[in-house]
């Protein structure tokens, strides 16, 4: 904004400087040309707008004229050096410590912290686990606030649309199978018109670029609730189970799955599934192996969601011992050699050391599963006002990334993506 500065004999103050001079507020400035510069107008003032995004108006001086003014001693004014902040009363006066390095220097402002941040998190890093069932209504899951068994034709499609709107374009499907379709051998797992293949076809028809991960395991389809076929003495049969898993993976790939994810922890299943997929022409379908899946107590809410608790015993003979660290390397080396494309660690936060172990010893992408128990604890803490749910959620995901996870399977995917996109709580 241009303003006149009256320099006549009417008593106005004579301005003999060049540059920016504060007026009523720090955002208003006055600029004039000194009379010593030939042909300079005797009155010219500029006031900067209060809005920071406005463009200041130039006063029209050439570079030579600006330099000449400075050489002549007409130095433009600038804000004063800010005073050193005072310490609170009673602070001891001590000599500075002789430190050559002070790491806090790189943390002293938000801009510096952002510039030097080593780990980032974006919606593209998130995979959204979704529970589906044959019904049309969305059924709340009591132990997992905010999660539902989604109707595969309606609620699921709507939830996927919400996720895509905030940048989450990868999902993993978990079916709640009717009890009448469960059997000891889990044959429903490879029914090409079963719940999962139908759902994949529906989603791919509506969202062709959606990345669909599937679960390869027998527990949702088994009348025993175990990940494999159970012998009459209670032993989980490895090789016979792998035979069933291969048929399940092929049926999912045929429906349009992008990534099949064996979560059963049977020995040799990755190589067998890779061979089965390739034999059927699905060379481009990826395998995300649950490489280090521990026999964890954090899975409880998930089993409620799918009604898939084991009818007897536990899963300790095929899932890993939580006390073991080096064993994860054995599993990862086997899966990598058999053709896995992604290695997954489950659970997530209690096993950050395992995520880092695999990250440091494999060139393959590493996935982490922030499981139902982790999700439910954060949710419960938030409801009880013991923690700030949103901050703990975001910190937990960032920690999984920092440990080495390239992607994170998390029930917080939609909520976290909204936060990342700047939406309010």
What does this structure look like?
The protein is 31% helix and 15% strand. It folds into 2 domains: 1-78, no CATH class; 123-420, TIM Barrel (Alpha-Beta Barrel), CATH 3.20.20. It has helices at residues 63-71, 110-115, 155-165, 195-206, 238-255, 269-279, 300-306, 327-338, 352-361, 372-383, 389-403, 413-420, and strands at residues 2-3, 21-22, 29-30, 45-46, 126-133, 139-140, 148-151, 170-175, 211-216, 229-230, 236-237, 259-262, 286-293, 342-346, 366-370, 407-410. It has 425 residues and is an alpha/beta fold. It starts with a strand and ends in a 5-residue tail after the last helix.
- Quaternary state, please? single chain
CATH superfamily of the largest domain: Aldolase class I
CATH topology of the largest domain: TIM Barrel
Mean residue pLDDT: 88
**Helicity range:** 25-40%
- Helix-and-strand structural type: alpha/beta
Strand content: 15-25%
Number of helices: 12
Note poorly predicted spans. Answer: 1-38, 40-49
The CATH class designation of the largest domain is Alpha Beta
> Termini, distance in Å?
41 Å
Cα shape: elongated
Output the helix-strand order.
EEEEHHEEEHEHEEEHEHEHHEHEHHEH
| Lateral arrangement of strands in the main beta sheet | 5-8-9-12-13-14-15-16
CATH architecture of the largest domain: Alpha-Beta Barrel
Number of structural domains: 2
Tell me the major beta sheet.
Answer: 8 strands, parallel, barrel
Write down how many β-strands occur, each being a DSSP E stretch of 2 or more residues. Answer: 16
- What is the alpha-carbon Rg in Å? 32 Å
GO molecular function: porphobilinogen synthase activity; zinc ion binding
Subunit structure: Homooctamer.
EC number: 4.2.1.24
Catalytic activity: 2 5-aminolevulinate = porphobilinogen + 2 H2O + H(+)
């Amino acid at each position: 904004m241009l303003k006149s500065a009256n320099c006549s004999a009417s008593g106005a103050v004579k301005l003999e400087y060049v540059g920016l001079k504060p007026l009523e507020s720090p955002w208003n400035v006055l600029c004039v040309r000194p009379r010593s510069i030939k042909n300079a107008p005797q009155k010219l003032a500029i006031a900067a707008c209060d809005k920071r995004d406005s463009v200041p108006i130039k006063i029209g001086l050439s570079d030579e004229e600006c330099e000449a003014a400075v050489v002549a001693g007409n130095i433009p004014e600038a804000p004063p050096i800010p005073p050193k902040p005072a310490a609170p009363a009673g602070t001891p006066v001590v000599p500075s410590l002789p430190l050559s390095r002070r790491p806090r220097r790189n943390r002293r402002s938000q801009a510096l912290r952002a510039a030097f941040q080593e780990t980032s998190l974006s919606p593209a890093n998130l995979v959204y686990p979704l529970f589906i069932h044959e019904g049309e209504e969305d059924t709340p899951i009591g132990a997992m606030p905010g999660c539902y068994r989604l109707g595969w034709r309606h609620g699921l499609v709507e939830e996927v649309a919400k996720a895509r709107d905030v940048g989450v374009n990868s999902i993993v499907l978990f079916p709640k199978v009717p009890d009448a379709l469960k059997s000891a051998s889990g044959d429903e797992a490879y029914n090409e018109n079963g719940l999962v293949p139908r759902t994949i076809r529906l989603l791919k028809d509506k969202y062709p670029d959606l990345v669909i991960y599937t679960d390869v395991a027998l527990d949702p389809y088994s009348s025993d609730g175990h990940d494999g076929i159970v012998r009459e003495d209670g032993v989980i049969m490895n090789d016979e189970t792998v035979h069933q898993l291969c048929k399940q993976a092929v049926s999912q790939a045929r429906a349009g799955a992008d990534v099949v994810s064996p979560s059963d922890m049977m020995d040799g299943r990755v190589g067998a599934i890779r061979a089965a997929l390739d034999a059927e022409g699905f060379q481009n379908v990826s395998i995300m192996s649950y490489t280090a899946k521990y026999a964890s107590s954090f899975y409880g809410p998930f089993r409620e969601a799918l009604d898939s608790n084991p009818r007897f015993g536990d899963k300790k003979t095929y899932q890993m011992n939580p006390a073991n660290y080096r064993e994860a390397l054995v599993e990862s080396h086997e899966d990598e050699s058999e053709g896995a494309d992604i290695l997954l660690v489950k659970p997530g936060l209690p096993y950050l050391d395992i995520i880092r172990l695999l990250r440091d010893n494999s060139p393959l992408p590493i996935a982490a599963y922030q499981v139902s128990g982790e999700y439910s604890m954060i949710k419960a803490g938030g409801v009880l006002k013991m923690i700030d749910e949103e901050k703990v959620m975001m910190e937990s995901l960032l920690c999984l990334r920092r440990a080495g996870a390239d992607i994170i399977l998390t029930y917080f995917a939609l909520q976290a993506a909204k936060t990342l996109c700047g939406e309010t709580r």
